Amino acid sequence: MSDNFSKHPIVFYNAENLFDTLDDPELQGNEDFTPEGDKGWDDERYREKLNRLAEALLLANDSTPLAFGMAEIENRQVVEDLIRTDQLRSAPYKIVHFDSEDRRGIDCVFVYDSRFLKAELETKLIVHIEDEPHFRTRDILYIKTLLSGHEIHFFVNHWPSRREGTRESENRRYAAAELLRAEIDEILHFNKDANIIVMGDFNDTPEDSSIREILRAKGQHEQKSGDLINLLIEEHKKGLGTVVHERQWDVFDQLIISQGLLQGQSGLEVEQNNAFIVQNPKLLYTFENGNQKPNSSYDGNYYRGGYSDHLPVFLSLKEK
Q1: Counting beta carbons within 10 angstroms of the beta carbon of residue 319, is it exposed (0 to 12), middle (13 to 18) or buried (19 or more)?
Q2: How far apart are CA 91 and CA 93, in angstroms?
Q3: Cβ pair 257, 200 in contact under 8 A
Q4: How would you write 241-279 as a 3-class SS string?
Q5: Residue 258 in contact with residue 196, Cβ under 8 Å?
Q6: CA–CA dist 4, 319 (Å, integer)
Q7: CA 83: distance to chain centroid?
Q8: What is the pLDDT of residues 206-261, one digit of tens each?
Q9: Which tens digits make up the pLDDT trace of 109-159?
């Protein structure tokens, strides 16, 4: 193999409403993302958005990603358009996508470079809220892959938002965490050293109960048997973030791995035992008072022409 997979990062990025320009009457709010809608979403803005997102993905490590997960994409077609941009078209990407029952019609997606990764299983986990049987949210994607002969299990998440309030909505994120943890437990039951990468916008921080207690994702020096490792917990403790929520930075976008992957027990390990937030100045908007936030496409209905209201996160793998 002429190219080394370790040069190519694994990225997660919330794309901030990557919609096409067509109105889908079955989706709530979809009409805003049309030329006639409140956001004036036309083909020129759509193409600019695709190029911005592609540029941001390359900023992670100055190379095309080995794989990337995304949240807030409308359908498979927008991802097809994304990987055909000049920045990404050199990589032979394949797409894993399922339509979810999310009320706004936004989904998760997993995209991988088929030169290095081979998908052996692609499926989705449907999140059910026991006391809200009619509530619909994004599915969790599960992809079992092979990389240089080593098995890796990927999970891509976009947990329910805090729109109704943090406490009022936490039961929904608890349900997503319980479902995900059960799937991970099943994998670890058969192979305690399995390579697992969990990525996503969790709408909770590394210290919230959904992540720390239910998913059992901890810091590198505090985990017990079976716990996962949250590679961005130190960034959270330092007051860094991937999104500005209620006027403060929060780490909602996280990369979480199994202990086997951290320790290289199954042939692969994370470079530098760490993950990183992409804090390139291009991805940041600076106010007159010096405060910053992600350089988003929109502020309300005002078109800013930026990248996303989240920052990407990434890690790199190498063979042990």
Answers
A1: middle
A2: 6
A3: no
A4: CCEEECCEEECCEEEEECHHHHHCCCCEEEHHHCCEECC
A5: yes
A6: 10
A7: 16
A8: 999 999 999 999 999 888 899 999 999 999 999 999 999 988 999 999 999 999 99
A9: 999 999 999 999 999 999 999 889 899 999 999 999 999 999 999 999 999
pTM over 0.85: yes
Token code pair at residue 6: 């370790």
Q: Are 11 and 312 in contact (CB under 8 A)?
A: yes
Return the amino acid letter for 270. V
Structure tokens at 15: 């794309």
pLDDT of 1 reads: 38
Q: Half-sphere exposure of 123 toward its Cβ, with a 13 Å CA cutoff?
A: 8
Distance of CA 143 to CAs 162, 261, 303, Å?
27, 16, 35
Residue 152 gets which letter from DSSP?
E
Q: Which helix (H) or strand (E) holds 292?
A: strand 292-294
The three-state secondary structure class of 219 is: coil
Which tokens hold the place of 10?
């694994």
Count other Cβ atoms within 10 Å, centred on residue 73.
Answer: 24
